[in-house]
Design a protein that fits this description.
By secondary structure, this protein is α/β, with parallel strands linked by helices. The chain is built from 31 helices and 16 strands. A 6-stranded parallel β-sheet has the order 3-2-6-7-1-8. Helix 3 (73-83) links the parallel strand 2 (66-70) and strand 3. The two termini are 20 Å apart.
Length: 693
């Protein structure tokens, strides 16, 4: 299987690359669309090689470069390996490249930052003036408001000491000094929110004053990729705000647009469907301006709208954001056997109908089973045995239920505790990408904070890890003597524990009991919070995961955070390895994935465990199969349908040879359409597990 390429199909495939090259030659921006396994990355690499070979000398003479933007660091590294060494091609992730484009415009970014700060202050003022939570404050006269603000700003440390304390403790501390402020302590939840808003406003206003006074550290905006949260008062922005600032800067300043266009006349973007709309707007803005000033400038998008599975991506809306793109479509598949391709064609049901480029692509196997939930292990074990799976021929098992994927991967307790927090009860679907993403830039604020801690622990625990991997600032080490470096390594070796909480206590005690500036700088950089104590970290987790907690729920919230910290460090290590699994150190005979985490990957043996629901999205796949013909759906229904279809397509199209699906819910109403796609569904049980092949 997969040894005989059809000469006719190969010629047709090559013609699609000729079409791409012709658009590159005429500087006509285009979109290259292809289904899973079509060799999209190959086409992207060939396009880069074409530009380098044909226009490399010109680019070199004019000190110009080719910009290639990828979705993840893994994809960027793969492209660099395939392309080989080239000084003309800048391959990077979206955020890395956007920051590189705008970071030198320091005064302009500071002006944009000032606007952002004022907008945030305005939003806080609106809340204070309108939200019922701030009524007691709003009803104060101007003099009392100022008095209250001064008292609370002078008592910041005391406020945080009793932030989650019982009402009696708050009254004992603040009752005497707030006796002249009517009703302000009547409701402790509203008091806490009011004071927090005042502190945030004060921080933002203080930052604006620092900028105006040209204070040290307030003359430039910093993008910090290590923390998935903004620290606006510290002049630090994170991923989403970076793209927002980049769009604002490029739209506002023509000179910036011209410099980028002249520096990067060719821009190729991988996985356009998952790319932020702000990035597409940036590219559209540059493209339009290049036409206005009569500059040659090309943008090439590579991707597949049907593989869009992230809610903040561009998806099928590329043409609405960046219009007048030429289209190149490739239909040949180089990954999967004919049997898998036939199924995935039926799932996507659009203009891209794939066929294998190989004449000998038959020999695969696809079957759809249905059965009860307690048979999942039996289903997995059946195919471990039947397909002779081992480290060299692993079984890859996909779970739609992310809790299940976490459980099978050895960190179900972390998932369970986070799912009980206020934040993830409201945003349950976000827990998937914010906890289980293999791209650390997609981790949520708290998962990224936890990841930084575990990364820190894993690195200093490994005797073979260079210390620069713990803190990646070369200048930091150049300023150290060898003796100082040895001392830091020795101190780091004292950190230990059994649970995450143990390690946090150990880290914070080391930090506060030592005056070693270098050590403290490493820990500061790792945690990125104001105060390095167990209590402050505990309160940070509590405040972030229970942002609007009511007083009567404090006990439950504190219990949830304590449970999170009491989880054995081995679970966090399993989670860390799951995040890092693009570079596994051990070959396992079975690997567990979520549907999302398989994006861009391929596997010989795939098991997919399906059920109706997807997080809080009820009846998702049942709805998809029920409305398989996709006729007469309203907008919200169409969105739901496409979400299910895209997830199913991405999962099934990962399979090279063997694909099995086990559906865990009733299929009576959807059996006919399942049969249309997968063939006759088979019942699976312990008794029948050895009957069907």
């Amino acid at each position: 299987m997969f040894s005989k390429i059809s000469p006719a199909k190969l010629q047709e495939e090559e013609e699609s690359q000729i079409d791409i090259n012709s658009y590159i030659a005429s500087s006509d921006s285009f979109v290259f669309q292809s289904g899973a396994g079509a060799g999209k990355t190959y086409a992207l690499v060939e396009s880069l090689k074409y530009i380098v070979n044909k226009y490399g000398n010109t680019l070199f003479r004019h000190n110009q470069k080719i910009m290639c933007i990828t979705y993840t660091n893994v994809a960027a590294n793969e492209l660099r390996e395939r392309l080989g060494a080239s000084q003309l091609v800048k391959v990077s992730t979206i955020h890395e490249r956007i920051w590189d484009l705008i970071k030198d415009y320091k005064p302009q970014l500071v002006e944009i930052h000032k606007v952002k700060l004022n907008e945030e202050i305005s939003l806080l003022e609106q809340k204070l003036n309108r939200d019922d939570n701030f009524r007691a404050y709003r009803e104060l006269n101007k003099e009392k408001k100022e008095q209250f603000q001064k008292i609370m700003l002078d008592n910041k440390d005391n406020f945080y000491k009793v932030y989650f304390a019982k009402a009696r403790e708050v009254d004992e501390l603040f009752g005497p000094i707030l006796s002249d402020i009517p009703n302000i302590l009547k409701n402790k939840d509203k008091f806490r929110r009011t004071v927090s808003a005042i502190y945030k406003m004060s921080d933002y206003e203080g930052c604006l004053n620092m900028i105006e006074n040209k204070e040290k550290g307030f003359h430039q905006v910093i993008y910090n990729s290590k923390y998935n949260r903004d620290r606006l008062q510290k002049m630090q922005i994170s991923h989403d705000t970076l793209l927002e600032y980049g769009l604002t800067l490029i739209q506002k300043y023509d000179l910036v647009k011209q410099i980028i266009i002249d520096q990067y006349p060719y821009v190729l973007i991988d996985e356009y469907q998952d790319t932020s709309k702000n990035v597409i707007e940036i590219m559209s803005t540059l493209n339009k301006y290049a036409s206005e000033i009569n500059r040659k400038f090309l943008i090439g998008y590579f991707g597949d709208a049907v593989q869009s599975i992230y809610e903040n991506g561009t998806g099928k809306n590329l043409g609405e954001i960046h219009s007048n793109l030429y289209s190149v479509i490739k239909t040949f598949n180089r990954r999967s056997c004919k049997e898998v391709i036939n199924v995935t064609n039926k799932i996507r049901m659009d203009s891209i109908i794939q066929e294998s480029i190989y004449d000998d692509s038959t020999g695969g196997s696809v079957k759809f089973y249905y059965g009860v939930r307690n048979n999942v292990n039996a289903f997995i074990n059946k195919y471990l045995e039947e397909w002779n799976c081992d480290g060299e021929n692993p079984l890859d098992c996909f779970f739609l239920t992310h809790r299940t994927a976490a459980t099978y991967s050895g960190f179900g307790d972390i998932y369970e505790q986070l799912s009980k927090t206020e934040k993830y009860k409201v945003l349950y679907n976000q827990l998937t990408t914010e906890l289980l993403s293999n791209d650390i830039t997609k981790l949520g604020e708290i998962p990224r904070f936890l990841y930084n801690i575990i990364h820190f622990i894993e690195k200093f625990k490994s005797r073979n890890t260079p210390i620069i991997q713990i803190y990646d600032d070369l200048q930091f080490y150049e300023e150290m003597t060898f003796v100082e470096l040895q001392e830091v390594i020795k101190l780091l070796g004292q950190i230990n524990g059994t649970t995450l909480g143990d390690y946090i206590i150990s880290i914070s005690e080391l930090y506060n009991e030592n005056e070693n500036i270098k050590l403290r700088k490493i820990i500061d950089n790792t945690l990125g919070i104001e105060s390095i104590t167990y209590e402050s970290i505990y309160n940070y987790l509590l405040n972030s995961l229970f942002p609007d907690i009511k007083e009567d729920k404090y006990k439950n919230a504190e219990e949830a955070i304590s449970n999170l910290l009491d989880i054995d460090i081995s679970s966090y290590e399993n989670w860390y390895q799951y995040i890092q699994k693009d570079n596994p150190s051990v070959k396992e005979k079975i690997n567990y994935h979520t549907y999302h985490s398989t994006k861009g990957l391929e596997f010989n043996n795939v098991l997919i465990i399906m059920e109706n629901n997807f997080g809080t999205q009820k009846d998702l796949f049942n709805f998809y199969f029920k409305h398989y013909d996709n006729e007469g759906l309203e907008n919200d229904e169409l969105i739901k349908f496409e979400k299910a279809r895209n997830l199913l397509y991405v999962a099934c199209s990962r399979a090279i040879k063997n694909l099995r699906i086990l559906y865990l819910d009733d299929i009576a109403e959807i059996k006919d359409n399942i049969t249309e796609i997968f063939g006759e569904p088979l019942e699976f049980s312990e008794i029948t597990k050895n009957v069907h092949s």
